[in-house]
TrEMBL record:
Residues 265-481 form the Histidine kinase domain. This is histidine kinase. It comes from Methylomonas subterranea. InterPro entries: HAMP_dom, HATPase_C_sf, HATPase_dom, His_kinase_dom, HisK_dim/P_dom, HisK_dim/P_sf, Sig_transdc_His_kin-like_C, TCS_sensor_his_kinase. One of its GO terms (molecular function) is ATP binding. Gene3D superfamilies: 1.10.287.130, 6.10.340.10, Histidine kinase-like ATPase, C-terminal domain.
Length: 481
C-alpha cells in the first residue's frame, strides 16, 4: 500500500517528537528522583548528627549509659528528640515497642503480610553501643550490618551509634510533592504529544502541499502538457525545485516546438522536390513531355537537389548528436582557408565576385582542431556568400588573432540582412525572404551545421551587418596554449 508524502512526514515528525518527549520525561524523572534522594540522604545525615549530639549531651549529664539502658522510654524520647519534625501525633510504632521487654532494638517491624516495611524510620534503624562495643540497645545478629559513628565527650569516645542500612522514611508532604510532580510530568508529556501531533499535521501539510503540487505537475508534464508552470512561493530548496521544474518545463516546451517545426520544415522541404520530380515523371509517362537529354538532366537536377537536402539533414543530425568524428590536431587554419578559397575560385569568377584574403597576423601559435571539419565550415560559409551575394560584388575574408583567440570574419556585399533577422540565421530551415528561391539557396541548414562545428571546437560564431553592405560572419576560436 503506497503511503503519501504527507503521511510519511507526519509520522516522521510525530515519532521524532515522541522520542524527544520520552527522553525529556525520563531525564526529568531521573533528575527529580536523584535530587529527592540526595535531599533525603542530607536530611538523614542531619538527623544522625543531631542524634549524636543528643546522646553526647545525655552522657554529659549522667556520666554513664546505665540510666539510659535501664529506661527504654528515655531511649525512645532521645530518639524522637533528635528529629526536628514536630509530631502532631506520636508515631504508630511507639506503643508497640514501649510495651516490649528488654533492650532488643530495633524491634521487629513486619506488617500483616510478613513483609518488611519498604521505608523504615531512622529511629528503627539505629543501635546504641558502649565504648567497648557491647550492646546497650540493639540485636546481636545485626552487628555485622552496622556502620558505626563514635559518640564523643570531652575528647574521648564514650560509645557508638550504629546505623543499619535502608532507605530513610519520608515526610508525607515530600511524598505528596513527588506524587504531584510525577503526575505533572505525565500531563506535560501528554500535552507535548498532542501539540507535536498538531504541529506534525501542520508541517506535513505545509511541506507536503508543494511536493504534491510538483508531483502532479510532473505527471502533467509526462503527458505532454509542457505549458504547465509551478508557483514559486519560497526561497528554500522547495522554491528552488519549483524554479528548476519551470526551467525544465520551458526547455521541454521549446524543444517540443522546435521538434514540431523541424518535422514540418522537413516534410515541406522534401515534399516540394518530390512533387516536382513526380510531375515531370508523370509528364514523361503521359507523353506530354518527350523523353530527351534535357528531360533527363532536369530529373537528375531534382534528384541531386533532393540528395543535397537529405545529406544536409544527415550532417545536421550527426552534429546535433555529437556523432561527427573529430580528429583534432594542432593546425594552421590559414592554410585550410587558402585551400578552400582556391578550390572555389572558379565559381567566384563565374559570378564575377572579387574575393580578398587579409591576414593580419604573421604567425599563429596553432589551433587545436579537425582540419576536415574546419574545411567543411569554411566552404559552407563561402558557398553561402557565393549563393546570396549579387553578381559583381565583393567578398572579404580577414584573419587576425590576439594572445588567446583567433578571429575569422567572412564579409560580403549586398544584399544585406535585416538586423531583426541576424540572430535567427543559425536556426535550422530559417531563410530570409530574399533567399527563398531554391535556385540560389539551400534548405537553410548550412549555417546550423556551421554553428555545431564551431561549438565542437569551443568557439563562438555570430552574424552581423557587413561594412560592404551585406552580411558578415564572425568566428572566434581559442588558440592552443
Amino acid at each position: 500500500m503506497r503511503q503519501s508524502i504527507r503521511i510519511k512526514l507526519f509520522l516522521t515528525f510525530l515519532l521524532t517528537t515522541l522520542l524527544v518527549v520520552a527522553g525529556m520525561y525520563l531525564f526529568m524523572r531521573w533528575s527529580l528522583d536523584r535530587g529527592f534522594h540526595e535531599l533525603v540522604e542530607a536530611r538523614q545525615h542531619e538527623r544522625v548528627e543531631n542524634l549524636l549530639e543528643t546522646l553526647s549531651d545525655y552522657y554529659a549529664e549522667t556520666g554513664s549509659w546505665a540510666p539510659l539502658a535501664a529506661n527504654k522510654r528515655q531511649w525512645i524520647r532521645l530518639l524522637l528528640q533528635s528529629n526536628n519534625r514536630h509530631h502532631r501525633y506520636p508515631p504508630p510504632w511507639i506503643a508497640k515497642v514501649s510495651a516490649e521487654p528488654g533492650n532488643l532494638w530495633p524491634p521487629e517491624t513486619e506488617d500483616a503480610d510478613g513483609r518488611m516495611r519498604r521505608l523504615i524510620p531512622l529511629e528503627l534503624r539505629v543501635m546504641l553501643l558502649n565504648a567497648d562495643r557491647s550492646l546497650l540497645y540493639g540485636r546481636q545478629e545485626k552487628l555485622a550490618e552496622l556502620s558505626l559513628r563514635p559518640i564523643e565527650y570531652a575528647g574521648q569516645i564514650v560509645g557508638y551509634l550504629g546505623l543499619l542500612p535502608g532507605r530513610g522514611d519520608n515526610q508525607i508532604g515530600d511524598l505528596r510533592f513527588m506524587e504531584r510532580q510525577t503526575q505533572a510530568f505525565a500531563w506535560i508529556a501528554l500535552l507535548m504529544v498532542v501539540l507535536s501531533a498538531l504541529l506534525a499535521t501542520l508541517l506535513a501539510y505545509l511541506l507536503g502541499r508543494p511536493i504534491k503540487r510538483i508531483a502532479g505537475a510532473a505527471q502533467q508534464l509526462g503527458k505532454g502538457t509542457y505549458a504547465i508552470r509551478l508557483p514559486v512561493e519560497s526561497g528554500d530548496e522547495l522554491g528552488q525545485l519549483a524554479r528548476d521544474f519551470n526551467e525544465m518545463a520551458a526547455a521541454l516546451e521549446q524543444s517540443e516546438q522546435a521538434r514540431r517545426r523541424w518535422v514540418a520544415d522537413i516534410s515541406h522541404e522534401l515534399r516540394t522536390p518530390l512533387a516536382v520530380l513526380r510531375g515531370e515523371l508523370e509528364a514523361l509517362q503521359d507523353g506530354i513531355r518527350p523523353m530527351s537529354a534535357e528531360a533527363v538532366d532536369s530529373l537528375l537536377a531534382d534528384v541531386m537537389r533532393l540528395n543535397r537536402l537529405t545529406e544536409d539533414l544527415y550532417q545536421l543530425a550527426l552534429s546535433d548528436q555529437g556523432a561527427l568524428s573529430y580528429r583534432k590536431t594542432i593546425i594552421d587554419p590559414r592554410q585550410i582557408l587558402r585551400a578552400d578559397l582556391a578550390a572555389l575560385a572558379a565559381e567566384f569568377d563565374a559570378k564575377r565576385l572579387r574575393v580578398e584574403l587579409i591576414e593580419r597576423c604573421q604567425t599563429l601559435p596553432g589551433l587545436y582542431a579537425d582540419a576536415d571539419r574546419l574545411s567543411q565550415l569554411f566552404r559552407n560559409l563561402l558557398k553561402n556568400s557565393l549563393s546570396y551575394t549579387d553578381s559583381g560584388g565583393r567578398i572579404v575574408v580577414s584573419v587576425s588573432s590576439d594572445a588567446a583567440t583567433l578571429h575569422i570574419e567572412i564579409a560580403d556585399s549586398s544584399p544585406g540582412v535585416a538586423a531583426a533577422e541576424l540572430d535567427k540565421l543559425f536556426e535550422r530551415f530559417y531563410r530570409v525572404e530574399s533567399s527563398r528561391n531554391r535556385n540560389h539557396g539551400g534548405a537553410g541548414l548550412g549555417l546550423a551545421i556551421c554553428g555545431n562545428i564551431v561549438a565542437a571546437h569551443n568557439g563562438r560564431i555570430r552574424a552581423q551587418a557587413s561594412e560592404l553592405g551585406g552580411l558578415a560572419i564572425v568566428i572566434e576560436f581559442p588558440l592552443a596554449k
